[in-house]
Design a protein that fits this description.
4-stranded antiparallel sheet
Length: 145
């Protein structure tokens, strides 16, 4: 199932360095960028919120130029799952294929809001990462089912 295996990551404000060999945090380590000591939202809940995006993201997977793109946005959600700031591209690139993939990811983020959030969701600032190769591989697997 596409949603079960999606790779979505976030960077921590206190430690922006990579946490995995690939240079990104994985779903099991997704965390808010801005630490909120009063936050009661668990990492699995945050992961579940951002997995909703992939149902709305359809990158053009047949284009060879899209493979390997990583697209990150800064986005702030309120406690009801609404986008209150962003999405803002992080380190935009000039490559037309990257820009096209980034636009589809941005639109998916906007279409996904307001997100379904758990009752204890506190909101915050996050950095979801869209990985085109992973999304396309998962889409291909779903087409085979």
């Amino acid at each position: 199932m596409i949603l079960a295996a999606l790779l979505l990551t976030a960077a921590l404000t206190q430690d922006p360095r990579p946490h995995t060999a690939s240079g990104q945090l994985d779903l099991d380590h997704l965390a808010p960028r801005a630490a909120n000591p009063r936050s009661q939202t668990s990492e699995p809940d945050i992961v579940a919120v951002f997995r909703q995006i992939y149902a709305n993201w359809t990158p053009t997977c047949d284009a060879a130029a899209i493979a390997g793109h990583r697209i990150a946005f800064d986005v702030t959600l309120d406690a009801e799952g609404r986008i209150v700031e962003g999405p803002t591209l992080v380190r935009p690139q000039q490559d037309p294929a990257w820009q096209a993939a980034a636009e589809t990811a941005r639109l998916a983020l906007l279409r996904s809001a307001p997100f379904d959030v758990p009752p204890d969701f506190t909101g915050g600032t996050y950095r979801p990462l869209f990985v085109t190769a992973r999304a396309c591989a998962l889409a291909s697997e779903a087409d085979e089912d």
